[in-house]
Design goal:
Blueprint lengths: L2 H19 L4 E5 L7 E5 L2 E9 L4 H8 L16 H18 L1 H10 L2 E7 L5 H20 L5 E8 L5 E3 L2
Parallel strand pairs: 3-4, 4-5
Antiparallel strand pairs: 1-2, 2-3, 5-6
Helix pairs in contact: 3-5
């Protein structure tokens, strides 16, 4: 199975668990070969999900796609300036999706959707929440320039498997 497909399925599984924790019903209807990544029913309402990632660089993306990688305990990561780097990568990931004609077309035909961003940050549970709170307004401003594409945006920390609602 290709890496993107594995990432999509993992993100959908974690989103399903997150929905259950939030007392929301989740049903995966299908995963089209093209766009969007999934058609789902949330609380009885049909919507769509797109999955993307906010890796720092290609090296990190390849590393995280390797199923034989060492655990986070074996990794050495410099945290100097890393929060801003992740802020920028998440911002860029959202902006890139908002600019895509396929996202605009999907939203026109299926309504607003959900974006899940794989977020490989070595942050603790508390730091993840702080990150979201600190930068939410910036992401909302970006989303307001294209208000009809995504109604919800989530971050999935690939280290902690924590799902956070960004917007």
């Amino acid at each position: 199975m290709r890496t993107k497909k594995r990432e999509e399925e993992s993100a959908l599984l974690h989103f399903e668990r997150f929905c259950k924790q939030q007392n929301r019903t989740f049903q995966l209807n299908c995963q089209p070969e093209t766009y969007p990544d999934a058609l789902v029913t949330l609380n009885g309402r049909q919507t769509w999900i797109e999955v993307t990632s906010a890796y720092l660089d290609q090296g990190q993306a390849k590393y995280h796609s390797n199923p034989n990688r060492p655990s986070i305990r074996d990794e050495v990561i410099s945290l100097v300036g890393i929060e801003y780097q992740f802020y920028q990568r998440v911002f860029d990931a959202i902006n890139k999706k908002l600019q895509k004609n396929t996202m605009k077309e999907t939203a026109q035909t299926k309504g607003k959707g959900i974006l899940i961003i794989l977020f490989p940050a070595p942050f603790t549970f508390e730091k993840n929440h702080l990150f979201v709170e600190c930068y939410r307004e910036d992401y909302l401003k970006l989303l307001n320039h294209h208000p009809n594409i995504f109604e919800e945006i989530y971050l999935l920390n690939v280290f902690t498997k924590q799902m956070l609602k960004l917007i």
